[in-house]
Design brief:
Layout (H helix, E strand, L loop, with lengths): L26 E3 L5 E3 L4 H6 L4 E2 L3 E5 L7 H14 L4 E5 L12 E3 L13 H18 L6 H4 L7 E6 L10 E5 L5 H17 L8 E5 L13 H16 L3 E7 L6 H10 L2 E7 L5 H6 L6 E9 L15 E7 L3 E6 L31
Parallel strand pairs: 4-10, 4-11, 5-8, 5-9, 9-10
Antiparallel strand pairs: 1-2, 2-3, 6-7, 11-12, 12-13, 13-14
């Protein structure tokens, strides 16, 4: 009698149907079936556990004293154009399309080098990584643009994005000065519908960037309930699509109650603040104070398909310009007792000033 053998299965067997979403430029798989889209800042992606969750709403509270929120928007938008992702940009300026000319360009392989800090083992790994990178560069037919299809790039804020990254992409620029909320809502709905049809269910990651949503230049700036309804609707549309929306707003122009409502609607809530000029107390408290341009605070992180809370290494990070060109986020480190300052590259084990950073949250 012929016997049939049944394949032995195990809970540790690999699922052959699990497609590698990491093959899609600009998207990265996360835990519990979540998919991440890069923020355009490598350090921010690392802090958030992978980047912005696909289908989430990110709210950024602006600093009324300095436009540091524009740094986040520039990198976010430039990263999307590098990955050929659809982009919708809404701004209270009269010519929002002109803002595209200020987007930064990705660094070349020779410029995109790790920061010189870490253990000797890390340095050896970096040397091997550099050797592999230069070996690819010396190959015949190597194109720098091929190396830029990484999940997240380091951008040179001093160089504008090359024109080749604007060709053949779905880019929509909207001025919110003369438009009603209904028209802006319709533009967002149309954009999300078009970006969903432009690829498969997982291969397209659209990006929506709305700057200074409640700015006085907008005709709807005094319609608090209408703006709140718009944010609720936008959150629902983004959640049902393969896109990420960033909305920056000057929270100081809102009443306390409405500001809290807006913050509650955010899946990920960030805030930026400029460095006070010649703050002697901060200069004595923090190392590397002279290199800082501002602070980034993380108040909430999106959690998709899970209820497990996020435990961050810190809630407030310093914003620095590495070699005056690329954005770097670092933990706040307490300065030496003698008050001298120096280069500080914080890690999860070196956030010694985290207990004193409560005064920097805003």
């Amino acid at each position: 009698m012929a016997t049939t053998t049944k394949a032995r299965t195990s809970s540790f067997s690999r699922n052959p149907l699990a497609g590698p979403t990491s093959q899609v430029p600009g998207l990265k798989p996360g835990p519990n079936g979540a998919v991440f889209l890069s923020s355009g800042i490598p350090d921010l992606d690392r802090i958030l556990g992978g980047g912005f969750s696909l289908g989430s709403l990110i709210m950024v509270m602006e600093d009324p004293e300095a436009p540091h929120h524009m740094l986040l928007l520039r990198n976010f938008m430039a990263q999307g154009l590098i990955h050929n992702q659809p982009l919708l940009y809404a701004s209270p300026s009269k010519d929002p399309k002109g803002f595209l000319g200020t987007l930064p360009n990705p660094m070349s392989p020779k410029e995109d080098r790790p920061r010189d800090h870490g253990t000797d083992q890390d340095k050896d790994l970096r040397i091997a990584w550099q050797y592999k990178k230069y070996a690819r560069e010396n190959q015949q037919g190597y194109d720098i643009r091929d190396s830029k299809l990484e999940y997240c790039n380091n951008f040179d804020l001093r160089k504008p994005l090359e024109r080749q990254h604007f060709g053949g992409k779905h880019i929509d620029c909207v001025s919110t000065q003369a438009l009603t909320l209904d028209v802006i809502h319709q533009r967002c709905s149309t954009f999300l519908a078009q970006s969903s049809r432009s690829g498969s269910s997982i291969s397209c990651g659209g990006r929506i960037a709305i700057q200074s949503f409640c700015a006085p230049q907008c005709g709807y700036s005094d319609k608090d309930w209408d703006m709140l309804a718009f944010i609720k609707s936008l959150k629902g549309m983004v959640r049902a699509s393969n896109a990420v929306a960033i909305v920056t707003f000057p929270h100081s122009l809102l009443s306390s109650s409405f500001s809290k409502r807006w913050q509650h609607l955010a899946d990920t809530l960030l805030s930026v603040k400029a460095i006070p000029d010649e703050d002697k107390e901060l200069a004595q408290l923090l190392t590397g104070y002279q290199e800082m341009v501002g602070f980034l605070s993380i108040h909430k992180v999106a959690r998709i398909n899970t209820q497990v809370p996020v435990v961050l290494e810190a809630s407030t990070f310093s914003i620095k310009l590495h070699k005056r060109r690329s954005l770097v986020l670092e933990c706040l480190n307490q300065a030496p007792i003698d008050g001298s300052s120096g280069a500080s590259y914080g890690t999860s084990s070196s956030c010694s000033a985290s207990t004193k950073q409560g005064s920097l949250d805003f």
